[in-house]
Amino acid sequence: MPQVSSPPTILIVEDEWVIALDIKQHLSKLGYNVSGTANSAEKALELVAATKPNLVLMDIYLQGDKSGIEAAEQIRQQFHLPVVFLTAHADEATLTQAIATHPYGYIVKPFEEQDLIIAIQVALANHLAEQAIHQALQKEKQLNELKSQFVSIVSHEFRNPLSSLLVTLELFEQPDRLTPEKRQAHIERGKAAIKHMAQLITDVLVLGQVEQEQFHSQPTLINIYQFCSYLVEDLQSPAQSRDRLVFTVSGCDEPAHLFYELDPKLLQHILINLLENALKYSPEDSTVTFQLHCEADYIQFQIQDQGIGLTEQDLAKLFTPFHRGMNVSKIPGTGLGLSIVKKCVDAHEGQISVDSTVGVGTTFTVIIPALKI
Q1: Assigned CATH topology for domain 9-111
Q2: Residues near 35 by Cβ (< 8 Å), separated by ≥ 6?
């Protein structure tokens, strides 16, 4: 059933209580909600802050030291709300002062009910249009900043592995200069460069889907134990100890029958990014622990490393696209991985948390709701 939007709420600021009551009756008759009435600028500002109306009807001459014009200017600057002046004063000097506050309307009393309806509808429509334009401009600004960061980082991240591949191919043109051990080392380096570029392309494509809001979970039945086991096997490098990445399972007696409905593509983005980061940002002789914990209605993944850790400043911007840690030094990366992880977790309606200490290590915990089949 479609949701019915509630009628706009209007605050009346009028120093004559009889007139304020009459305006309130008019507004109620027209179907608007009245958030309150005020007879001074101070009271008006209090009510605006407390009730957050959609529009303010403002008399120019009020009780107290401040005029309605001063109150309107303060409301515009602090709360960005539309103000319509409703006053008996139409002289040129007063009108000039009022216009300086950028009001959304100006009605001279006594007014006809139709004049009030038109002024309110026009003011609300103009305010909504301005908000939409402002949001569009902000989004465009953010996209331009992201594009600039994207071009800079991606060009850098492609240049290094391509240079590595070029050196490897040039050396292969002179086979006499390579021992079997060096040849194998260059082959492994080339594979790593290709894998890095492939992952970068994947991250860019996923980020494009996120920006176009085409990111949705499409669950299918998978054996989560086998799924994680295959990922671990793929991440184990022949040049590294097979014990570097330790995979454990808890919360179940039969790992071979751990079937859940999950989106395998999104899940792969989550786990690959977290596991590769753990391996990349921790010493080669250290251990990365990957724990899968299964319950009847959710799955928990926990990835713990003994790496460089995250600073407090980095934790605050952890899932921001292109943000990289202050202490990563020359370790390559784009800053896209964790922002993609967060989007994938959100698409599963899950939760992600992190516990990290600089120089000690980092633990990421992901909880995804899912029913065991």
Answers
A1: Rossmann fold (3.40.50)
A2: 9, 10, 11, 47, 51, 52, 53
Characterize 177-202 residue by residue with b for buried, 16 or more Cβ atoms within 10 angstroms of its Cβ, and e for exposed: eeeeeeeeebeebbeebeebbebbeb
Q: Counting Cβ atoms within 10 Å, is residue 85 exposed (0-12), middle (13-18) or buried (19+)?
A: buried
Q: Which residue has the tokens 């240049």?
A: 159
| CB of 369 closer than 8 Å to CB of 317 | no
| 132: number of Cβ within 10 Å | 10
- Radius of gyration of the chain measured on its C-alpha atoms: 31
Domains 142-214 and 216-373 alike in fold: no
Beta bridge partners of 293: 250, 300
pLDDT tens-digit map of 301-351: 999 999 999 999 999 888 887 777 888 877 776 677 898 899 889 989 999
**How many other CB atoms are there within 10 angstroms of residue 155's CB atom?**
9
The CATH homologous superfamily for domain 216-373 is Histidine kinase-like ATPase, C-terminal domain (3.30.565.10)
Long-range pairs of 322-330 with CB within 8 A, sequence gap ≥ 24: 322/146, 322/149, 322/150, 322/153, 325/281, 327/358, 328/281
Q: Model confidence over 73-102: pLDDT tens digits?
A: 999 889 989 999 987 766 777 777 777 778
Tokens found for residue 135: 């949001």
What does pTM read for this prediction? 0.55
What separation in angstroms does the CA of 373 have from each of 224, 226, 228, 261, 335?
A: 11, 15, 17, 8, 36
Residue 320 in tokens = 């921001």
Q: Where would I find the H helices in 212-258?
A: 224-235
